[in-house]
Design a protein that fits this description.
By secondary structure, this protein is of the alpha/beta class. The chain has three helices and five strands; from the N terminus they run E-E-E-H-H-E-E-H. Helices cover about 30% and strands about 15% of the residues. Strands 1-2-3-4-5 form a five-stranded mixed beta sheet. Helix 1 packs antiparallel against helix 2. The longest helix has 18 residues. It is globular. About 25% of the residues are buried.
């Protein structure tokens, strides 16, 4: 899947994964897992004003840490790579004071 938000970066691939990888102009590398991207799109759709600040914070995190995997769940990442740190969407949005709860899950009511 193509993530247009990251089209300014050089796309890189790792034959060990289908997770999208990118390299910035300074050689910093980051990967964006589908679950993280889904959550990012939730902000784009429901909290449009939060979208650009989140992208800017992602860029800052990549520049500060050099090797980042943006994951849906850091306890069970889809892609693991030595020397990389893991960040969930809440790691980015919460410190910025940007909150979004995805309530599109099934009902909690039973029979």
């Amino acid at each position: 899947m193509e993530y247009i938000e990251f089209s300014k970066y050089k796309k890189i691939s790792d034959p060990k994964t289908v997770v999208n990888g990118y390299e910035d102009e300074e050689g910093n590398i980051f990967y964006v897992e589908p679950a993280f991207y889904y959550n990012l799109q939730g902000f784009k759709d429901k909290r449009a004003e939060a979208f650009e600040p989140i992208l800017k914070e992602m860029e800052r995190i990549v520049k500060a840490n050099h090797h980042v995997i943006f994951t849906g769940n850091f306890e069970a990442p889809m892609y693991e790579k030595e020397g990389f740190i893991y960040k969930e969407i809440e790691d980015i949005s919460d410190p910025l004071g940007l909150f979004f709860e995805d309530k599109s899950r099934g009902s909690d009511y039973g029979d």
